[in-house]
Amino acid sequence: MTRRLISEFARIVEADGSRFILAVLPTGPQIYEDLWSEILVAAGDDASHFDPTYPETQLRTFCKADGIRCVTLLDQKRTAVENAPVAEGRFFYDDGRRHFIDAGNACAARIVHEFLVDGSEQEF
Hints:
The protein has helices at residues 2-15, 28-31, 33-43, 54-66, 74-82, 102-118, and strands at residues 21-24, 69-72. By secondary structure, it is mainly alpha-helical.
C-alpha cells in the first residue's frame, strides 16, 4: 500500500511538471541507541525481528524499482548525533522522540539541500 501511494503521488507530481523526490526522515529511536533499546525490550521475544534500518531499506528498494529519487537521512543524522557536544543532548527531536526541533529541521534541510543541489542519483 505504501509503495502504491508513493508511486501514485510521484506520478501526479511529475504529471504536473515538477520533480518528485522522497525524503525519508528517521525517528528518534532509529538514531538514539537507548531509545531503540527501549523498543527492543518492549518487543520481548519478537525483538530479534526488529531492524532500525528497515524503513529506509524498504523505501529505497521501492523507489529504485519505481525510478523515484530518494534521499534518506538516517546515517547522516546518526553521524551528526555522534559528533554533537554532550551538552546538546537530544538536539534533533523534542525529548528524542517527537517532532524535529529547530536543529533537527536545520540538519534535515541541509541534507536534502545538498542532495538537490548536487543533482546526483546517489542516495545518502
